[in-house]
């Protein structure tokens, strides 16, 4: 499954037991937003999610790749404790600090047909870097 | 996986000699076809485990070994605290104490067949399963702490089960050494509405039929015979365990260098057993084990309620409950000397042999029941621990089939609705909230569990007792 705009995209990549999420974007912020959409897509089609409610998230990490793990784990925490799915993200990364808005709605089991619940974002296949074309790539495997 | 560097010891035992930073060899228990089918990354991960400080004897891979996180799934490794040994949050994984329990019913398949649909509907209505489901039990902080200290014993004290259940659970239903004060508020919050829920992914509750018995003596002692019906529950410590895993994995990955540990893969995050973070993790992880034991106990209670409505003649005593993502302190004989070791089992089942003092009296002569989970159309197994297994793998065996295809590929290959229809033709009723979830867990996405079990039996990790096939499957 994948979805793309001209300058940004997300995709899933295979892991033998679980699933990898990869976000790409012109900026680091966009790559993180796209990775988050990839996370939602592990559970449901992000286009099915109405963006009715907003949740603020902040995190800080010793490196950019750990920041990605923290960001996705913060989303997993909000998803499970609020029983929500998120369909839109606005990320601002300043150095190694991230502040974000995640928009979404409560899980509707009929409409969303949620597939599986992510347990945690992992350090497996973790990478936050620029590719040869200068585009940011943010990826890791999610344990489901 | 490329088998060229491996030395073949027997049909089902292979050795990768230590090279480079490896402190011990890697031992694979699997036949040639299973090893060749393993991802190279599973072998790399087992090799990485062999480099960790304080590892004893070998880094082991069970016949169902596959690519995991840090440790391979199907990985077993023992560490000695006195030799600088480590505990690894990655080596236990996110779903702390995920496991399988099996309940007897006293029913024959012919009793269940006529009411199978009704039973499936009643179980699906009663057992909270899948994303967005919440349990009916909501714990305040004091009760949560009591649950984290007491495990299944706590659940039985609250009326969810009987005293007899406890002896049929590893650790007699309550993991010693749990320290709930090291479980964060976030982990507690994640569990607030999740007690007595099945979860999702490969978790399930199945009504199964015993289709074949391999060891009539042990089967008789366990009260299972061909044509009998049992219920198996596969799930773990839910959000609480996932959050403990997430937090300690991060902390250990970042702090490894301070402990002088060079991590070949950050997911292998670990800390010395005698370090402050190592001790804290052990306390929190043991509390996570108790959460899983309590959760499976509550699900057992809900299952018994459903059976008392639909098939009131049934009684559902516990056959046994195993956990397959743990690190436990155990005594093992190494080169003739008894040692206290910390055994990591990541996607591996404890399989104590006959006579082990941890086993309840009724099971002591038989060896520990080892419950191997399947998935929907695939079979499950009951094995028993052996004396040889104690020496081969610190009393450990396989835990399931292991995937042969990623979720990514599986959902492209199958349609959930069609799978459910095909399984119904085979007499297997599946209930799930998610058709894509069913496709991702398609029986064809898993390896042949029979090859895994045969290999474990041949090499002596555990002996085959009985084979089970699903009748009803509630998918999480």
Write up this protein.
By secondary structure, chain A is of the alpha+beta class. Chain A has helices spanning 28-43, 64-82, 109-112; strands spanning 2-5, 8-14, 19-25, 53-60, 84-94, 97-106, 120-121, 127-130, 136-143. Chain A has a single domain (12-143), classed as Archease, Possible Chaperone, Chain: A, domain 1, CATH 3.55.10.10. In chain A, strands 1, 2, 3, 7, 8 and 9 form a six-stranded antiparallel sheet that branches. A three-stranded antiparallel sheet of chain A has the order 4-6-5, with helices on one face. The longest helix of chain A is centred in the middle third of the chain and has 19 residues, at 64-82. Chain A is globular. Chain B has 476 residues and is of the alpha+beta class. In chain B, strand 1 (7-10) and strand 2 form a beta hairpin. Chain B is built from 17 helices and 19 strands. Chain B is 34% helix and 27% strand. Chain B has a single domain, classed as Alpha-Beta Complex (tRNA-splicing ligase RtcB), CATH 3.90.1860.10. In chain B, helix 6 (141-150) crosses helix 12 and helix 9 (185-191) runs antiparallel to helix 11. Chains A and B meet through strand 2, helix 2 and strand 7 of A and strand 4, helix 9, helix 11, helix 14 and helix 16 of B.
